[in-house]
Design goal:
Elements: E1 3-7, E2 16-17, E3 23-28, E4 34-40, E5 43-52, E6 55-60, H1 69-82, E7 87-90, E8 106-107, H2 109-114, E9 121-126, H3 132-140, E10 144-149, H4 153-165, E11 171-174, H5 178-181, E12 190-196, H6 212-221, E13 222-232, H7 235-246, E14 252-257, H8 266-273, E15 279-284, H9 308-314, E16 320-322, E17 325-334, E18 340-347, E19 352-360, E20 363-366, H10 375-392
Parallel strand pairs: 8-11, 9-10, 9-12, 10-11, 12-13
Antiparallel strand pairs: 1-6, 1-7, 2-3, 3-4, 4-5, 5-6, 13-15, 14-15, 16-17, 17-18, 18-19, 19-20
Helix pairs in contact: 9-10
Bound molecules: S-adenosylmethionine.
Length: about 400
């Protein structure tokens, strides 16, 4: 991680601008260290300033990290020039000529929140791993769009390399938890959802992909007669899914044992060699589902004026856990002219979001951008608003 180490120094003057055009907007202080608000190359982020062994360490604040890393290095170098401390160490030499690979088929979740639209047929694969099945399907069906969801970054990179080698043009990879992703697909829009050899999580069943909620969400996004196709070698996971099926007695489903598919995954090859059984459970969607509207409103409506003293004294700092979401208001940072930063973690237990709230002139905003509008984030946002009103009311 790029950082600089300097001798102890006074706070830089804010607002100020370096000769490279980096803006240092304000410094918010706390006993945990300072947050320095920076605007560099059109991007807003914080630098953290900490005391380390009688020196000052300045680095990017991980919650507000931006890309490319050269932007952060530029800001750190400018800080080193402006401050009145001596530079002791830095790993911020900038190589602006480095070519970055374009990742045309790797899509950010924001793309699916705001842009994704197609008239083509869509299939989704959850946890594609090495991507053998996903790539096979995409090659066989070039007119279908395949969305591959995976949380393991090396698997995504490996799969994208194959996409390039095989010149496949109908796959999108998304680095996102499948349990939260489906919210961003329109109702009745998907033909098939593959869940092949999901991790059975025998000791941590709450981490399983398959659940009542996931099945209901799959049925919503599937077209009538569309299918959710689970394939597993785990007897425990198979029994768990049989049990889930009993919660939906009206759904049409099929169970097949030791069926050969046209392509077998790396895992499957291994299990077959060991003579293990493999089960397929397919659940079919039977009804047209109503459209859902995503609530993207993350604005704050306070009942009172911002009172930093009350906020510091009254705000609940322990995590507050509710059904399906949580809020943890962690630290408060304050500037000399009463801008308040509230560092918090919120949303789903499966994919918590770390954010700063900026409270300034009776206006509250999320720093950089609003959270992704998942239901857990929306619920957490409403709770944060209640907590702010309670603390300052
Ligand atoms: C056992 S591997 C199977 C991979 C592949 N489907 C196959 O058959 O070879 C399970 C994969 O699911 C991914 N995974 C686990 N939980 C996930 C989630 N919630 N969302 C998306 N991917 C997930 C893991 O990273 C892993 O690559």
């Amino acid at each position: 991680m790029p950082h600089i180490l300097t001798s102890k120094h006074n706070n830089i003057k804010t607002p100020s601008k370096s000769k490279d055009g980096v803006l240092f907007n304000y410094i918010a202080k706390s006993t945990y260290g300072d947050k320095i608000s920076v605007t560099c190359d059109g991007k807003d982020f914080f630098l953290t300033k900490l005391i380390k062994d009688d020196k000052h360490l300045i680095k990017i604040d991980s919650t507000t990290r931006v890309t490319p890393v050269e932007t952060v290095k530029k800001a750190l170098n400018s800080y080193g020039e402006i401050c009145d401390g001596d530079l002791i160490f830095s790993n911020t030499s900038n190589d602006n000529n480095r070519l970055r690979p374009t990742k045309k088929y790797l899509k950010d979740i924001g793309y699916f929140v705001d842009e994704f639209q197609t008239t083509k047929e869509i299939c989704v694969e959850v946890g594609f791993g090495s991507g053998r099945h996903l790539l096979y399907q995409a090659q066989q069906n070039p007119d279908i769009i395949y969305i591959g969801l995976e949380i393991h970054t090396p698997s995504i990179e490996q799969m994208l390399k194959q996409v390039k080698i095989l010149d496949i043009k109908n796959v999108f990879a998304v680095n996102y938890d499948a349990r939260l992703f489906l919210e961003f697909l329109a109702s009745n829009s998907v033909s098939r959802i593959f869940v092949h050899f999901p991790v059975p999580w025998d000791k941590k069943p709450h981490r399983r992909v398959m659940s009542d909620e996931f099945i209901v969400e799959c049925m919503r996004v599937l077209k009538v007669n569309g299918s959710l196709e689970l394939r597993t070698d785990s007897p425990n996971y198979f029994e768990y899914n049989e049990e889930l099926l009993t919660h939906f007695p009206t759904y049409r489903s099929a169970i097949v044992k030791n069926q050969d598919l046209a392509v077998s995954s790396k895992y499957e090859d291994r299990w077959k060699k060991q003579g293990k059984d493999i089960w397929d459970i397919t659940i079919y969607s039977k009804d047209i589902s109503p459209a859902i509207v995503i609530d993207k409103d993350f604005s704050f409506h306070l009942n009172c004026k911002i009172d930093i003293g009350k906020l510091q004294n009254n705000l609940e700092k322990k995590p507050i856990v509710k059904k399906g979401f949580f809020v943890h208001l962690e630290h408060i940072y304050i500037t000399d002219d009463n801008i308040c930063l509230l560092h918090l973690t919120m949303g789903s237990f499966n994919k918590p979001v770390s954010k700063y709230l900026v409270l300034k002139d009776d206006i509250v905003n999320y720093f950089q951008s609003n959270p992704i509008p998942t239901s857990p984030n929306q619920n957490a946002h409403k709770l944060i608003q209640e907590l702010l009103n309670e603390a300052m009311g």
